[in-house]
Amino acid sequence: MRKRKSEVLGLLTEVLSAVLYCGVFFALTLLAVR
Amino acid sequence: MCKALKAMIIAALLSALFMISAGAEEVTDINSLINETEAFNNQSVTVEGEAIGEVLERGEYAWVNISDGTNAIGVWMKAEDAESIGCFGDYKHIGDTIRITGVFSNNCTEHGGDVDIHCASMSIVKTGYSVKNTVSQTKTVYAAALLCLACAMALIYFRSVKKRKDSSNN
Amino acid sequence: MVIPLVTSLAMSEWNPALDFVISISVSTLVGCFLMTVGRKTRRGEVQVDWKYGYIIAALSWIMLMFLCSIPYLLSGHTGSLLDGCFDVMSGFTTTGLVLTQDLDHISTGLNMWRHMLTFVGGQGMVVLALSFLGKHIGGAYKMYCGEGKDVKLLPNVKNTAQSIWKISMIYLLVGTLALWICGMSIGLSPLPAFFHGLFMFESAWSTGGFAPNTQNIMYYHSFSFEIITIILFVLGSLNFGLHYAIWQGKKKEMVKNIEVQSFFITSFLISAFAVLKLSQTGVYTNAVSSFRRVVYNVLSAHTTTGFGNVYARQFANEWGDFGILLMVIAMLIGGSACSTAGGFKGLRVGIVFKGIVADIKKILSPERNIRVEKYHHIKDYVLDDPTVKASALIIVCYMVLFAITTLLGTFYGYPLADSAFEAASVSGNVGLSIGVTAASMPAVLKIQYILAMYLGRLEFISVFALFGFVIGGVKKLCVKH
Questions:
Q1: Burial status of residue B103 (CB atoms within 10 A of its CB: 0-12, 13-18, 19 or more)
Q2: Residues C229 and C332 in one domain
């Protein structure tokens, strides 16, 4: 059960990190192209 | 004398009309548009191609992707126009050939930099049809023969492996 | 091949169904033949050395290339056996360049096959075999390494292979669902949306770059669809060891890992320069356009995915030499080691970079100081000379491959920038095209591209071992007679 929980958390961490990564790039693009 | 003159004037007028309409209806192939995006940017163009895939409806407007054999491009048109297209191209169909006149953008600001055509007018030139994918007899025969052969070989192989395992166990 | 067969049957596509029956039969026959020939090894009577592991990996890819091209050839959408093999190799190596004609009219079964090939290829054919085949595979780890991976998730190679599959399958479910829902929201009808979702997931996760239509990702005209693919292909380009570590609870790995850091820095720098240059030249001056057309393509190149959000010729005509070179660099650096991505790999770039910095520090610091440099990749490792040398050598191999492929392109008359772009795309298994790849390409160039994709994916050693083995064998034969 604990293994399953850590896997789900891991998945969420990865997806959120990727979303954050996209967000950072988008923000930087907004700043670069005014 | 009068009749001949009248006939000539009518002929001249008719040919002038033809010349005007021919100029407006010059069909460009999609690949040329893409190879010379700068030249065609924000120009009115006419393309003719097969509607492929399906309509992507986005509220009042819709995307229809068309392919004319040289390349494919997305056309942004009114949803009602899109709905008038009866057949779309895929494995089992050749889609309607439609003629689009509209403004070409190589960097459409409305659509995040997309290369597209905003349709001003559309007409269906040729209706699409279902493609008859006939199954050839030779292919069926080959398939059946190979399948039988493969099953036979697999059976022989696994039986011999099992025999060897049994004999090595005994 | 059973999956596409079932798909074709379900969609009432009889011709493709027969094509797959034929392909399955031929493959079974070849398989039985090979197993009969190799029965001594099965019984454990032959010692499997390191070289055999590498050779098996390399050779199996070639054999599979021929077998898997059968459905393509029978479909009538490929111009020749060479074109069919090109597409198969492109799928296996998760490159994504396409020579198949008229993608918009191919059967669902064939599309299922293409995307499956890239999904499986991303994981690795040897990995697939190892996760299924039984207990007594001598030299399993050696074959696993022969495919360009060497991370050991778990002590047993079979378990490692199964772990890799488990991670991919869970993402398959999550990713396909996300794309399916998005697809329906952008106007696709339910069944096509499912297939598009599945195919685009397989292509994104495996950083392949195939798409079910000619226009690639431009078919969808959708920012949301593109964003989901970015998330999927960035995650797909990460090291499987990293995924495993994070799923075990080591969340800090996401930030501490050398590859993640390397990737973040290089992708950021390259995107920034590209966005700035292209807005300066007036090509993309709107933020959303810049993000969708510039950043997307740079990330697609860097992760070696190959989803193209502009037409091939636009790279040539609008991006300018600076833009093209930036893309070449992004494509060559590539993604993470032991993942579905290609290129030099961020790990090597990070190691070599740190190695250079360490050398400079050594020169500048007092001679009596002993400095030990470390890097963090799941665990802490010492940055010693052999490690730096190994990384640097492989980078050199990639550069040589890239140079030869570019040279060959220019020999056939293609402009330098175009040749370099396409060469980087094949060497790094990316899949973006500037227009060189076409059915009308010279056959020698097609063969070179197939070779480059193959070498790039298997990371040279196994292919060199195969060549060496074959040449050694031929020499022995000549000596005998």
A1: middle
A2: no
| Burial class of residue A31 (count of CB atoms within 10 Å of its CB; 0-12, 13-18, 19+) | exposed
Residue in this structure with the two tokens 């399953």, named with its chain if needed: A4
Cα dihedral across residues B14, B16, B20, B25: positive or negative: positive
What whole-number distance in Å separates Cα of residue C220 and Cα of residue B111? 12
Question: For residue C69, what pLDDT is reported?
Answer: 93
ipTM: 0.94
pLDDT in tens, C349-381: 989 999 999 888 888 887 777 777 888 888 888
pTM, 2 dp? 0.89
Sort out which chain C residues have CB atoms less than 8 A from A9's CB and list them: 249, 251
Q: Which residue shows structure tokens 């991670």?
A: C167
Residue C474 falls within a domain, yes or no? no
- Contact yes or no for C25 and B147 at CB 8 A: yes
Q: How far apart are CA C324 and CA C332, in angstroms?
A: 12
B149:C32 CB<8 A: no
Residue B140 contacts C where some CB pair is shorter than 8 Å: yes
Given the candidates 1.10.10.10, 3.40.50.300, 2.40.50.140, 3.10.310.10, the CATH classification of the domain at B25-130 is 2.40.50.140
Option in B57, B92, B112 nearest C223 (CB): B112
Q: How confident is the model at residue B21 (pLDDT cuts 50, 70, 90)?
A: very low
Note whether B114 contacts C290, CB cutoff 8 Å. no
Residue with tokens 């190695």: C355
Question: C interface mutation test: which of A2, A8, A17, A19 has the most C CBs within 10 A?
Answer: A17
Cα nearest neighbour of C238 on chain A:
A14
DSSP assignment letter at B96: P
Q: Delimit the domains of chain B by residue range.
A: 25-130, 134-164
Q: Which residues contact C328 (CB under 8 A, 6 or more apart)?
A: C420, C421, C424
B118: three-class secondary structure by DSSP: strand
Helix or strand run (H / E) with residue C376: strand C374-377
Q: For residue C443, which of C32, C13, C80 has the smallest C-alpha distance?
A: C80
Same domain assignment for residues C96 and C147? yes
CA distance C87 to C70: 11
Q: Which residues of A touch C264 (CB under 8 A)?
A: 21
Do A and C touch, 3+ Cβ pairs within 8 Å? The answer is yes
Top-confidence residue, B3 or C95:
C95
Closest in C254, C272, C286 to A17, CB measured: C254
* Token representation of residue C297: 């393509």
Instruction: Examine the pLDDT at B151 and tell me if it is beyond 80.
Output: yes
Q: Point out the residues of chain C with pLDDT beneath 50.
A: none
Owning domain of residue C164: 2-236
Distance from CA of C18 to the nearest CA of B (A): 6
For residue C272, the chain A residues in CB contact (below 8 A) are 28, 32
Look-up: residue for tokens 């356009």? C289
> Which of A13, A21, A29 lies at the smallest CB-CB distance from C290?
A29
Is residue B89 less than 8 Å (CB to CB) from chain C?
A: yes
